[in-house]
Task: structure prediction
Amino acid sequence: MSKRIDYGNLMHSAMRGLIRHVLQDVAADGLPGQHHFFITFSTRHPDVVIADWLRERYPEEMTVVLQHWYDNLIVEDDAFSVTLNFGDNPEPLFIPYDAIRTFVDPSVEFGLRFETHDSDDDDEDDDIDMVDDDPDTPHRDAEVVSLDSFRK
Result:
């Protein structure tokens, strides 16, 4: 057992699982109501599979939209694949969940942002932020709350 609980990686895994679960529901039943997704992913991820012309056009990251037209949505444990239309040119995409940088459903103002950065000890940490599409919402710094304030 490690010397500490790695909450960052546990949250990372849970949020990727949430995306997988949502995509499984969509694959089975289609997009409900006005729901649609903006998914930004790293095109540099070694397991991402996209057409060469897309990789040339988007060498760092790419945002795709699952809304009106998509086909062959297949959801796996570690990745999903989907065919999207790019200017009347259907292209298959294979996207591992750990390549995803943002997942946003603007119809309900829900989003997740996954940022990676190198720490001082050269381990890669993942930060997970909730994305709020409302520009009028003020952003607050994290605050430390004493557990004593919740005790009766």
The two ends are 34 Å apart (CA to CA). Strands lie at 37-42, 61-66, 70-75, 79-85, 90-96, 100-105, 110-118, 124-130.
